[in-house]
Design a protein that fits this description.
Length: 158
């Protein structure tokens, strides 16, 4: 029991993104030019609990029949910098351009299916038997919610 309690208490913290530095040093050695630097994070999607089906009066099947599954992830910080030579036509004006994107949360909801039964509820006027109806089929649209942004910068030496 003590070992199980210690194992349960030592669960690692869940990371939202894994930082990654992209090695572009081979570009500098093979082409002889200054390579850009790229640092970003790989998002780790976390699947949430599906939406519970709802039953409505007069319907034999729940709505939605195939539940919507939410997925949440954090787009990590991204920074791309690159040298910009001879920015104003002179070597002393060499600068550096950058594109950065701050971390933001992104939530995606998968599609769901709505299926109607080909039978109605039991009908008292039909001796308690259900009537035939036209089956219904529908899909709920997937949704993507987030506010990613990017900043473009250009720096020159002073």
């Amino acid at each position: 029991m003590t070992c199980m309690a210690a194992a349960g208490a030592a669960t690692p913290a869940v990371a939202d993104a894994v930082p990654v530095g992209v090695p572009l040093d081979a570009v500098e050695t093979s082409l002889g030019v200054a390579a850009p630097r790229l640092a970003t994070a790989v998002p780790l999607p976390v699947v949430g609990a599906p939406e519970a089906p709802r039953f409505h009066t007069g319907d034999m099947l729940p709505t939605p029949l195939l539940p919507v599954i939410p997925v949440k992830t954090e787009l990590g910080d991204t920074l791309l910098t690159s040298p910009v030579p001879n920015l104003l036509g002179r070597p002393e004006t060499d600068g550096e351009g950058s594109v950065s994107s701050p971390a933001t949360t992104l939530i995606a909801d998968g599609p769901g299916a709505i299926v109607g039964s080909p039978l109605t509820m039991p009908d008292a006027s039909n001796f308690g038997l259900p009537n035939l109806t036209t089956p219904k089929l529908g899909l709920t649209a997937p949704a993507l919610v987030g506010a990613p942004s990017a900043l473009l910068g250009l720096g020159t030496p002073r």
